[in-house]
Amino acid sequence: MPVGIFRVCLVVITAIVNHPLLFPKENGTVPENAEEIIQKMKEREESLRLEQLRLEQEIAEQEATQKALEKAEEVVEESKEEKVQWDMWTALSMVIFLLIELWRQDFQEGNWQDTGEEDDMAVLGKAFKGVAFPDKAILASFYEKRILGTTGDMARMREMVEGFADDLLEALRSVCNRDADMEVEDCMGVGSMYENWRVRKPFVCDLIVPFAPPEPYCFRSQTWCSGDSFPPDEQGYGTIKVCRANEDVTGCICDKTKLGEDMLCLLHSQANTTRLSSEMEDLLCFKNTQYLDADQVMKWFQIAVTKAWNRISHKYEFDLSFSLLDSPGALKIKFRSGKSIAFNLTPVVQYENSDVYFISHFPRSGLAADLPSSTHWFLTFAVYERRFIQLVSKTLPANACHVSCLQILSFLHGKQCSLTGPSGLTNYHLKTVMLHLLQARPSQDWAPEKLEARLQDMLKFLEKCLHEKKLYHFFIGNGKVPAELGFPIIFQRAEPLNLFRPFVLRRDVYRKTVDTFHEMLRNTSALINEYTVHIPLAQTNGIHKESL
């Protein structure tokens, strides 16, 4: 503060001393330089004015920039709000679309059986146009000549095979070590031979043989619908764990917790682990696991059957051998006359206390995919399928045509495949179609005189399934299974299993299957007439008049 006052005083004194009025004579240079000073002041004033203009321009530019930024922020905010609203409407629209699509699929799957014959005709595509379908008289004559004659042969063959299989399994039990080997139970007949609809030779009996581990072990099974997530290609399969009867299902905590280097599990030391691994291999498990290995089971079963046959072969005047390399359970009886009888003897594991079975080997088709691994077992519902057909047959009219339809369709498809090569369709697919229609149609619709109409229904339904690439397993996901069957509820509540899913993945097989089906339709009359006794035209016309 004192320094400031001193400076002010100094400036005032200097101004007084140099004022021209106070010292006019000494300060004579001022008038001479006045013009130069004025010029400099004007230049200074001009520079200050230009600087002021420049500053004003910069301020204006900054204000414009600020306004532009504010406007841009407002646009961004508005776009964000619009985007949020658009995203919300998009998501809502997608949800509505998915709900509509799910409802449409459920409606089609759950209510197709409620539609009448006129609605079924809408399903037909170009394949049925121009197809001359055999009439009732020709179908009846064909069935009587080609189908009925084989029924007696099937009955005699079943009786012979079942008697020999029982004897063979009894011998197998005698050669096995009851304290270490698997325990084999009595065999059961399943499939077309025991449902009386197989038509094509050679006739092959399918027998399944349940087995169980020796004490103190037991099987604990897990299926794809038991809660844990299974990939789509593993649906329809399950795994079988070999455990001690008193073993906790969840296992020891050392399997789930990483123990320290200075900690040791007293139950699972290295010696115990080695001994357990050896025991599991003896119990036909996959290496270093407790899961039953289907390949190991089939090797054990083939060896056991060979030993059993060696024990009883002297009682029979024929030879027994394994017939197919790709079917480990396929056996063939060869008589000295040159004739032979083939049958399948396949070990299975019972699922809990039901008649659903894990099957160690399932006959392959061109459509079937390879097993995910040898520890994955396919589930078969063959026992329940046979029971369902028997149960429904009691409510149908005498000589109902449901089995006849399946036999004719199986014959036509088999004949067509022998001409043009195999396709993705199997007899199991054809039987599944019949099971769905048996549940959908009233019992009076299966009267014998309606054979032609029901056969056309099966073809229509099959064409619809091929077109949509969807044929659902009859039992899995079907909530309308009769309670009298005692079918496990876990499979009724499961997601429906699409038997035609491989068609989606293998377009070449799908194209071949569709072409074979269309060719079969065009050749239907020719294939049936080839095996039909000539019927006078007057008789055929008479039958048509009666039907009208």
From TrEMBL:
Cellular component terms per the entry's GO annotation: nuclear outer membrane; plasma membrane
Chief subcellular location: membrane
Any one GO MF annotation of this record: protein kinase inhibitor activity
Cell location: Cell membrane; Nucleus outer membrane
Source taxon at top rank: Eukaryota
Signal peptide: 1-15
Pfam hit, one: Mab-21_C
Keyword Glycoprotein listed: yes
Family: Belongs to the ITPRIP family.
Name listed for the protein in its UniProt record: Inositol 1,4,5-trisphosphate receptor-interacting protein
Organism: Herpetotheres cachinnans (Laughing falcon)
